[in-house]
Structures are given as structure tokens and as C-alpha cells.
Amino acid sequence: MPNENSLTANHLTNGTEPLTNVNQLILDSVAEGIYGIDLDAKVIFWNKAAERLTGYHISDFRYHNLHELIHHTDPHGKHVPLHHCPVYHALNSGESMFVKDDIFWHKSGSSFPVEYTVQPIMVDGHHAGSVITFRDMTEKLKTDEIIQQWEKLSVVGQMAAGIAHEIRNPITTLKGFLKLMHAKNEYNPEYYQIMDSEFDRIESIIQELLTFSKPQSSYYENHDIKELVQQVVQLMQPQAIFKNISINTAWDESTLPIWCIEHQLKQVFINLIKNAIEALDDGGEIRIDVVVQEGEAVIRVKDNGLGIPPEVLAKMGEPFYSTKEKGTGLGLMVTFNIIRNNHNGHIYVESKTNEGTTFTIKLPLENVNTSR
User: What is the per-residue DSSP string for 251-271?
Assistant: First the structure.
């Protein structure tokens, strides 16, 4: 039985007049797809852009449910029941909603990426349905991908120059000592010690560059982010205790599974905690919090050290930039890459002189594998 507050074509303007040709012309002039549904989820209007983008005419919904035609499967290939549909929830609650990353299905059987808004339609103060405005994001995603590729090429160029410089220095040193040893034809322990140190530096640079490479998807698995952090904390505790530093953690007992590469996230936490330890010369505290905020896992690593000067903070994450005497500058670059590129996350750093530094990592929970 139809809902008594359901919207019909007779309620689309001032509550008494039917949808006019003028109103339809206005809807059809809009580039975005627009359609309206009543409280029974029946399509009551459908513009030309919606028809063009999906291949469906409004008459196709006379005997078929719209959701099962254009929104039946999610981007991961999993069937979306009607009661799990964001539009359905917004319709029932009368709330507004914005969905950024979804797909709609074309009549031909192909899908296309969309973002859409759901807004309630009010008639005489009563919620009578919803209007959905959607955009085909295909071209924007292609443009974004091209921009990302150019940015990566720019980074590769910077890294190539940095690698050549960083490796040339120890190689020059090694060649110099080899020539010196050959000329003198004698064994000098001091020479060997210096050469060994230069080999270690080259090895360190190569190892961190290998970590920077993009992994295959087969390495991704569900892991409890809190458990990964705890394992790294236990690993780093001896170094902290040796410097009179306490590492304190704060989170609840629930599990928080993330679709991730285990060893890479561990490397991130090792890098951040190691940096925090090195920032606390005379003891101090490192605090690690894990919470859920707005659909994301948020991990904060905070120390109460001397802080980072603004001019240094602005360059953090750049390849081969380091304030450490023997640092390569690749540790934070690798950390940023793992979070941003390999896990679709975000990483921020805040610091105040004499108050300390906080690294904040945000990982989207939608990365969780739902196929298991």
C-alpha cells in the first residue's frame, strides 16, 4: 500500500500543480543526472542527463526497481541489497547525504564511477521523498590519474638526481682509498673501517629505495591496526628504556582491521617511533593513540621533545633531506609513500618548539576487505 506521504507528480511544485513542461525543460538542461523518488522508492521524475548516463528511460522503472537496475553492485563486485543502499537510508531518514566514491550501472551492463548527493523533498512541512543528483566521474578520475603520473615522474626525476649524488659520494671515497692502498701496497685497518662505513651507507640507501617500490595487491591482508602498533611498541621498548623514555599507548580493546601490507605499516610505526626516540635526548614520553573518527582509523604518535623548526618542518618527507649527521632523508619519504600511495591514507605532522611533535596517520576503513 503506498505511503500516505508519498510524493507524486502532482506535488512537484506548489503542492497542487503537476510537473510542467517548463520544469522538465529546466531539469533536462542540467548536465548532472537528476531524479526524484517518493517514499515508496518509486521514480517520479528523471532528467535527460540521467537517461543519457544510465541508458534507462523513466518508463523502464514502471515495473522494475531502480536500485536493482543501476545500483545493484558495489565497486568491489559485491551485491548491494536495498537495505544497505545509502540512498535508501537517506530516503527513510529524511537526511541529506553526499557519497563520493560509488558506481552506477548502465543499461548495457557496464558500470561508471559516480559521486552523488541525496536531498529530502519537503511538501507542506512533511518529508515526501528524495532528489538525487549524480555526476559521472570517469573523466575526472582519468585526469587525476594523469596528474598523479606527472607528479610521480617529477618525484622520480628529483630522486634520480638525489640518488646519483648520494651514491656518488661514497663511491668516490671508496675509489680514492682503493687507489691509495694500491699505490702504497700496504694494509691499513683505518682505511678498511672507512670503506666499510661507505658500503653500509650505499646499502642503506638501496634498501630504503626498495621499500619505496609499489607492492602487488597479493600482499594486502586484513590486520588489526592496534595489534600492529603494539608489536612495534614492544620491539622499540628496549631502545626507549635505554634513553629513559616511556612509550604509552591509549586505545580500547576492540579490534580495528585494516586492509593493508603488514610489514609496511610496521615499518611506518618503526620509523615514527625511532624518530621520536631520537628527538628525546634527555628522556621523555612518547604517546600513541588509536581511535576511529569519521570512518577512518586515526593513529597519532606524539613526543614531548624540543619540536621541529618551521623551516625544517616544511621540507620533511623530501628525498635526501635530513637533519641527522648520517641520515639519508629517505625514512620519512618512504613513510609518506606507504601511507599515501600504498594505503590511500593521509599523514600530517605538527610541531611546536619546546612542546614536541605529533605525527597523525589516517587510514580509510573502507580499505577493509569485505569479501571474506
Answer: --SS--EEEE-HHHHHHHHHH
Of 209, 211, 189, 213, the residue nearest 201 (C-alpha): 209
Residues 145 and 30 occupy one common structural domain: no
* Structure-model confidence comparison of residues 45 and 153, the more confident one: 45
Residues 6+ apart with CB under 8 A from 200: none
CA distance linking residue 148 with residue 126, whole number of Å: 46
Answer yes or no: are the C-beta atoms of 7 and 44 closer than 8 Å: yes
> Which grid coordinates belong to 221?
591482508
Query: Could you give the 3-state DSSP secondary structure of residue 245?
Result: strand
Considering just the CA atoms, what is the radius of gyration of the chain in Å?
A: 29
Which three cell numbers mark 60? 523502464
**Three-class DSSP category at 39:** coil
Q: How many domains does the chain have?
A: 3
Q: Does residue 76 contact residue 370 with C-beta atoms inside 8 Å?
A: yes
Question: 189-212 and 330-340 are packed helices; what angle lies between their axes, rounded to 10 degrees?
Answer: 20
Q: For residue 92, is it within any domain? A: yes
Q: Which pLDDT does position 12 carry in this prediction?
A: 45
- pTM, 2 dp: 0.47
pLDDT tens digits, residue range 24-38? 888 888 889 999 999
* Domain membership flag for residue 3: no
pLDDT digit string, tens, across residues 138-187: 998 888 888 777 766 666 666 666 666 667 777 887 888 888 777 877 77
If one counts every other C-beta atom within 10 angstroms of the C-beta of residue 113, the result is: 17
- Grid cell for residue 262: 603488514
Please name the residues in contact with 353: beta carbons below 8 A apart, sequence gap of 6 or more.
Answer: 306, 307, 309
Report if residue 2 sits inside a domain.
Answer: no
Domain of residue 173, residue span: 138-213
Query: How is residue 131 written as a grid cell?
Result: 532528489
We report the CATH number of the domain holding residue 200 as 1.10.287.130
- The answer to whether the CB of 329 falls within 8 A of the CB of 321 is yes
